[in-house]
Each structure stands twice: as C-alpha cells, then as structure tokens.
# Entry
Amino acid sequence: MNKSVKLLILIALLHLTLVSCQKNMKKKEYSWTAAASTPENYPAEIFSGHLLISLKPNSYYAYLPFNAIINPKQGLGSNNNFTMDGATAIAPKVLDITWMSYVENKSYSGIFNLDADKIQALMINGDREPFYDTKLKKIIVNKYYDYEINVGLIPGGIILVWVGGSENTTLVGRYQAHEDKNVNWMLAREQMTNNSEMDEDVADVVSRLPQEIKDQITQGKIPFGYWDTLLKQYNLIPAVKPGYKVETLYFNYVNGEFESIFLSLDNNVMPIRKRAAPRKMNIVWHDINDRRMESDVYFDEKKIKALFEQTKPNEPIQFVIEIDRNTKPRETTGISIKLKTNDREIGLQEAIVSQETFTKSKPY
# Structure
C-alpha cells in the first residue's frame, strides 16, 4: 500500500471520528432529581432515604426529602416534596429507605434493587414536548431530558416508584418494606429526649386529618390493599371520531401514571399500550365552526374503578369519547364517554364528577 492510499485512509478515519464526536456532543444527556409522595390524607415522613447508583462503598446517592410531612393533594403519584439531589446520564439502581406511616404509627424500612434498565430506557431519548411558536407561527417540538423519580409511600409498607418527565409519567416498580421497630427518631428530632415522644407528633398530625381517615384509624379500617387495586391495567385504547378533529389527549390515571397523546402530530395514530382507569382527561378539539376548544373531565376514582372492573380480563376495550361540537365555552356538558368491548357498552357518565370546556387560542 503506497503512502498516498495510507494518507487517504487516515484522513477518512479522522473524518469519521470527528463526525462521531460531533454527534456525541450534540446528544443531550438525561438527568433526574428525587421526590416522594403518599396517597392523599395518608401522610408519611422519611427518616432516611436514598436513591443509590450502586451498593458499592462510597457510591454516589441522592437524598429523598426528609424532615417534612409528605401529604400531596392530587392523588396517587402526585407529590409536594422533592429535592434537587439527583444525577446525570446514569440511572439509580438501589432504593434504601426508612419512613413513618402516620395513620399506622409504624416505621418501615427496606433496601430494594430498582429496574435501572427500564428507568434509563424511559429517560435516555427525552420527553417530546410540542409548543406553538407565535413568531414563526408553527409548532416546534422540543425534547426535554429532565426527569423526576418519585417514591410513593403507601400504608402497609408498600412502595411505588414512578419516572416522570415533562409529558409522561410511568410506574416502574412496586416493592414491599418491613415494619421496623428499631428506628431511633431522636436522631431526626433533636428536641426529643425519648423515642416514645414520636407518638405525640403522630397524634398531632392525625388530629388534623379528615374525620373519615380518623374513623378508619380508630375502627381499624385503613384500606390496606386498596392502592394495589388501582394498579390494574387494561387493553384500553382511546377512540375518537376523525371528524371531531382532536389535537391532543392528556390522561391522569388512577395508578399515578400520566400520558400525553399528540394526535395532530402523529397522523391521528393512537399508541397501543396497557392503561389503568383514568382519574382525569383533558382533550383539545375543534367545534362546529373549527374553533379550538379544550375540555377537562374529572372522574370519581372509586366509581370509575368499579365500572372498569365490569370488563372481562384481557379483553380489548375502546375508551370511546363522544363530543357535542356545538358545546360553548364554560359549559359543563358536551363530552360523553363509554367503554366499548366486543359484546357490550358501559357508560361512564355516573363516574364523571365534573367537566368544563374553554376556548384555546393556540395548540399546546
């Protein structure tokens, strides 16, 4: 091989290396921070909690929020406690946690291996988020790589873990902790002189809960196991008539997941996946005069759960959305929904708590 050929090969290799480096430089890396949650009115407090990169000595870890009462108001999967601790370009592999369940006056502990591959797969490609650029007068689709890993603390020592991005939240694990009677809460509360003083703090928090929850505690009727029933998923596909000209669908599900469906970006193709019963639906559609409208529909959790349980195991289900395209802004009717299977229909109107429609000047 002569020197000229060798030089050409070397130049070609250098070019490929440079292109590869440029691509890697352009590729964004995902990052995540830590959060914690509980079902509404079943508060908890973390004594010690970490999301670890590994169990090796001196491995990096991110703190979960502690020294605060956790009690979000938006249902399973929502949170009002988070930290700025997290990591970039590496998924957590282990959860190590100890916490107090106030309604039980019990501490729980556990160390759990997380599904790091599944967590990374959800984050590595970013979350698609479209918006309308008013100057360019067109839709721009950005990718966001900022995520939140939310640890849900459920009565009975159950732990749920979600990965949430800007447009989607996915449940990635359920774990069972053990009761821990050896937690020294004096380490978390400098003013305490005896561990039994934690009972006073628990009683104070419980005294401020709704009467329904206090009755559950005194009557021994805390609904252990109820939250596991919310995790059930169905072969559920939202269905809308093409003539409705629906742009987007947003779903909050009772299992704490959230999904954004961008029909106008995806040629009206509905993604195929398992879905839990919805807690809330937001839909952007066009009325009879082609005016853009937005409707919120809220469901009663227990009622919609009961209606979904009337379906047969593993059967295909359509979530049929019917729209009165003459619906005016501020009206509280206009959207009706039913479940449709191969052999029957189940109306969901009795499960709808409220709905309201607004005008929407621009998409997304």
Notes: Helices lie at 3-26, 116-123, 198-207, 211-218, 226-229, 301-308.
